[in-house]
Amino acid sequence: MPDGQTVPRTLPRPLHARRDIRSGIDANNPSMDRLAQSQAVLMSGTVDVVETAQAFLQSRLYANLNACKSLISCRYPMELAELHWLYVENTRAQYNKYAQNMSERVRQCVRDMRTKSDDADIQ
Question: Where are the domains of the chain?
């Protein structure tokens, strides 16, 4: 800084003040409980979706590797065309099933979050 001046530092609020604010929010706001419950359901649903996606990607990897092995071993153009057609049909069906499965999992997660929220309203 020119002329030897220093800039005053601003200090963060004391930790005890932050704790007081947090405890006041928790004690006086019942929606925080609903929020925590719905977030727990959301996290559980997210884990389920990620695990399903990982399993799908792994199965697609193996299917692609097997398809490559089959295509490499073809001896005739018609055999190649037939294997390619089967690959495309099986892949389409697998992606369709995966999309339906993921859609249902996300819908179920949303239903569970609404149920948790409604249950918290009743209590």
Answer: 43-123
